[in-house]
């Protein structure tokens, strides 16, 4: 009897709580005001929902915008409505796609409405026109897979789970850039939802100055709902050659000398990454990934450039191009897409490898890992992409400012506890600091999408006065109130 009474009491409490919860939801001014405006497929997800954590979790967790609600768009028309609603109600707007971006400005975002654009993920190929039209929230993996199935390809980043537009708007590096240029160089036009809640088409012939800005500083001016890219016939039957090689660290100087020599005549089809990889109790080893989209000549190129270096292990494989992001480069693309441990990342752009500095970075990394064994999944990646088609585009033609860079360095700290944030930032700061001093650039340079935000605007957007004036002018024209200021914002004055 006593048990029965307790059960009744418990049921009563649960009932009252659930009524209060529902009242609270319908009373939420955001839900009440916005729901009726949106398309039927759209939804609003509040922090009380079990879906909220998954929709807001970020890959690089040291940078964490404060989100009050997620609005999942159901159709393109929802996007300008959300922008207008946020402005009218004085709410901060935040654009969320695949959530791999990082940068200090993300930590300044408070109480924001996040526009989740991932439902806009259609991929439509026009083989005759050699274009692909993609939704603004599509991932790299979806685009690469669809193009591969059609015997086509275009420049794309090396991790399938990353958004297609996020990289593009900052430039967009990938293995095919030697042939086709940056991802941004392949952009034909976009549909952009602007701060004034209109949708405009932006291309070389429509709002051409804005098109210039979108290709390198594009996170600043609106939300891309759809984009058209140039595509190309696969020249290799859709098969890549991949080699994964490991070395002991005493060969570092020879490896980076070989990388410097290789980059002087790097074939258009070949990308090489060198990585410092921790191992328990001893110094990190050096891993080299060599990926070529010309399988017929790749082995000869590999042996000529790196065959003289005494390796510890070496495997070679032929991979269908739509699997290369997952299987090539020691499978690092798969690990990056599934690992949910806390991360922080800094980038540096270089014109060449200054070998004593690379040794200095190795030593700093080895000490950092020895002192913080919990950070054993951290890695330093030295990315050497082919640059022929990137450099063929004049620097003034797009907002992308660093076309003469040959190597992108990614310092990636992976660690389990936020308490290590300070130590991690110290390591990232000192390693990036020495790289910047011998970068080959007069002043620090960093790929915008690898920047942590403390480098200064010039480092990511270029130091030329005309360039910054042009960007500020575009900001005044297209986003005077700073609606799109969450990601490496350009000031309007
Ligand atoms: C694991 C990993 C692998 C990476 N590999 C590469 C690579 O191979 N090549 C490369 O160039 N970069 C690479 N990057 C860097 C990448 O370019 C940036 O992290 C980029 O910001 C990720 O975009 P996203 O859509 O995934 O992330 P999000 O965090 O969702 O987007 C980042 C920012 O981009 C803007 N944005 C995204 N989509 C839109 C849109 N449709 N309209 C308007 N604004 C938009 C928003 O301002 C948003 O804050 C990688 C990053 C990670 C973490």
UniProtKB/TrEMBL annotation:
Q: What's in the keyword line of the UniProt record?
A: FAD, Flavoprotein, Oxidoreductase
Q: Which PROSITE patterns match?
A: FAD_PCMH
Which InterPro entries does the record match to this protein? Answer: FAD-bd_PCMH (IPR016166), FAD-bd_PCMH-like_sf (IPR036318), FAD-bd_PCMH_sub2 (IPR016169), FAD-linked_Oxidoreductase (IPR050416), Oxid_FAD_bind_N (IPR006094)
Question: In this protein, which residues make up the domain named FAD-binding PCMH-type?
Answer: 63-234
User: Which cofactor is recorded for it?
Assistant: FAD
| Top-level division of the source organism's lineage | Eukaryota
- Pfam families recorded for this chain? FAD_binding_4 (PF01565)
Q: Which family does it belong to?
A: Belongs to the oxygen-dependent FAD-linked oxidoreductase family.
Can you say what this protein is called? FAD-binding PCMH-type domain-containing protein
Q: What is the lineage of its organism?
A: Eukaryota, Fungi, Dikarya, Ascomycota, Pezizomycotina
């Amino acid at each position: 009897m006593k048990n029965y009474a307790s059960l009744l009491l418990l049921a009563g409490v649960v009932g009252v709580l659930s009524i209060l919860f529902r009242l609270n939801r319908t009373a939420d001014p955001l839900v009440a005001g916005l729901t009726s405006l949106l398309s039927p497929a759209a939804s609003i997800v509040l922090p009380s929902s079990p879906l909220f954590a998954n929709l807001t979790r970020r890959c690089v967790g040291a940078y964490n915008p404060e989100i009050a609600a997620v609005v999942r768009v159901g159709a393109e028309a929802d996007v300008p409505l959300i922008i207008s609603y946020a402005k009218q109600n004085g709410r901060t707007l935040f654009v969320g796609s695949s959530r791999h971006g990082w940068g200090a400005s993300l930590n300044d975002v408070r109480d924001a409405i996040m526009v989740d654009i991932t439902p806009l993920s259609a991929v439509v190929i026009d083989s005759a026109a050699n274009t692909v039209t993609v939704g603004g929230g599509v991932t790299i993996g979806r685009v690469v897979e669809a193009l591969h199935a059609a015997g086509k390809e275009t420049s794309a980043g090396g991790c399938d789970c990353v958004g297609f537009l996020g990289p593009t708007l900052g430039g967009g590096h990938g293995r095919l850039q030697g042939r086709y240029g940056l991802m941004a160089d392949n952009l034909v036009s976009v549909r952009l939802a602007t701060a004034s809640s209109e949708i405009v088409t932006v291309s070389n012939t429509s709002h051409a100055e804005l098109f210039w800005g979108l290709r390198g500083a594009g996170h600043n001016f609106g939300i891309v709902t759809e984009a058209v890219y140039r595509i190309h016939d696969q020249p290799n039957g859709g098969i890549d050659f991949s080699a994964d090689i490991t070395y002991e660290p005493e060969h570092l100087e020879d490896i980076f000398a070989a990388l410097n020599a290789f980059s002087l005549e790097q074939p258009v089809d070949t990308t090489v990454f060198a990585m410092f990889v921790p191992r328990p109790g001893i110094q990190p080893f050096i891993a080299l990934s060599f990926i070529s989209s010309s399988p017929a000549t790749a082995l000869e190129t590999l042996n000529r450039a790196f065959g003289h270096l005494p390796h510890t292990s070496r495997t070679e494989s032929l991979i269908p191009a739509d699997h290369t992001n997952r299987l090539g480069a020691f499978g690092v693309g798969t690990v990056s897409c599934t690992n949910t441990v806390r991360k922080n990342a800094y980038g540096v752009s270089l014109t060449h490898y200054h070998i004593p500095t690379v040794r200095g970075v190795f030593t700093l990394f080895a000490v950092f890992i020895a002192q913080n064994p919990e950070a054993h999944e951290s890695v330093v990646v030295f990315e050497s992409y082919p640059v022929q088609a990137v450099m063929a585009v004049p620097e003034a033609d797009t907002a992308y400012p660093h076309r003469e860079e040959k190597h992108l360095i990614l310092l990636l700290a992976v660690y389990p506890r936020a308490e290590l944030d300070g130590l991690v930032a110290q390591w990232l700061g000192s390693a990036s600091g020495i790289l910047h001093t011998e970068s080959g650039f007069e002043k620090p340079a960093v790929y915008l999408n690898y920047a942590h935000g403390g480098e200064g605007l010039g480092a990511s957007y270029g130091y030329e006065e005309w360039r910054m004036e042009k960007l500020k002018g575009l900001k005044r024209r297209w986003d005077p109130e700073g609606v799109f200021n969450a990601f490496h914002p350009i000031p309007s004055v």
